[in-house]
Design brief:
Blueprint: H1 7-30, H2 36-57, H3 70-95, H4 101-109, H5 111-122, H6 130-147, H7 160-183, H8 189-211, H9 220-248, H10 250-253, H11 256-271, H12 280-294, H13 296-305
Helix pairs in contact: 1-9, 1-11, 2-3, 2-8, 2-9, 3-7, 3-8, 4-6, 4-7, 5-7, 6-12, 7-9, 8-9
């Protein structure tokens, strides 16, 4: 798969990390007016409307629902909607109300380690090598160093163990979702992304309305945050995610989970004036070193082209 990891996919990976890294601030602002389930439903619904509109405006529309192979295609689209969006979003939104926020970040850093064996078994060409495994372990340690021991501190709240399991379960869902994305039958990438978000929004919207109801009042800041979450971290990110996984594979895509915490810390320091953690430089060295080791062949080809 290294041969397919082109410079454009490295650029897409960095853009995804920046978009998702900045989303944490928007979630915080959105939660000032609405509950976590409404945040999830809003971003998925807005993202679906955005992508479906663009898909039809460009003459692509949604994937076909009739004809040979369409049943299998929509099974994979449903798998992406459920495992890459609905279940992990719900698990994280519930779990993060109880566990220390850093614990969810550590769980997301474990996604690449979960993807490795799944890709080795199900995706042709994705071989689990010792070098890759060591690189991913180093990257995971970097995220743990960045977030610090506070991620594992007990909050003392009820259902804390279940909340931690929910965060771990969300990481597992993301890993499974990436395999569905890679193995999905060939179809236009924009149409696929639009269909995934549309199906995910149809599933989550009634759940949010049942659990939290219709918001009575939303501040302008929260509304703007929800719009941002729907357009960039959900809609645009779904298209980029699909492109990267389809072109470069789920193992390469999983590297974004190491970069997101770095960008989150960066935006927190620049925009919110939050103090930089003293472990930042060590964490960056571990994360970048792990990425370089796990993608050594692809990086060599990238520098030759440059």
């Amino acid at each position: 798969m290294d041969a397919r990891i082109s410079p454009i996919n490295w650029i897409r990976l960095v853009i995804l990390a920046v978009i998702w890294g900045a989303s944490f601030m928007s979630v915080t602002v959105a939660l000032e007016s609405v509950g976590p389930y409404v945040v999830v439903a809003s971003r998925l619904t807005l993202g679906a409307v955005f992508l479906v509109t663009i898909a039809y405006a460009m003459g692509k529309g949604l994937p076909p629902v009739r004809g040979a192979g369409t049943g299998r295609l929509w099974v994979f689209i449903a798998g992406m909607a459920v495992f890459s969006n609905v279940i992990p979003f719900l698990l994280l939104s519930w779990g993060q109300q109880v566990v220390a926020s850093g614990f969810a970040g550590v769980c997301m850093a474990v996604v690449p380690l979960l993807v490795l064996p799944l890709a080795h078994v199900f995706v042709p060409g994705e071989v689990l090598t010792l070098r890759r495994l060591i690189g991913f372990v180093i990257g995971t340690l970097g995220v743990i160093v960045l977030i610090g021991p506070g991620a594992f501190a007990a909050t003392g709240q009820n259902f804390e163990l279940l909340a931690r399991l929910a965060c771990v379960g969300a990481a597992g869902c993301y890993a499974i979702g990436s395999i569905f994305t890679r193995l999905c039958p060939e179809v236009d990438r924009l149409s696929m992304a639009a269909a995934v978000l549309l199906l995910a929004s149809v599933i989550i919207l009634p759940v949010a309305l049942i659990v939290e109801g219709v918001p009575q009042e939303i501040s302008l800041n929260s509304l703007l945050a929800l719009i941002y979450l729907g357009v960039l971290p959900t809609a645009v990110a779904q298209v980029l995610l699909t492109m990267v996984i389809r072109d470069a594979g789920p193992v390469f895509m999983s590297l974004v989970n190491y970069q997101v915490p770095l960008w989150s810390v960066f935006f927190g320091a620049v925009i919110l004036s939050e103090p930089l953690p003293p472990s930042l430089m060590l964490a960056m060295a571990l994360i970048l070193g792990g990425v370089a080791l796990s993608q050594l062949g692809a990086l060599k080809r990238l520098f030759r082209r440059l």
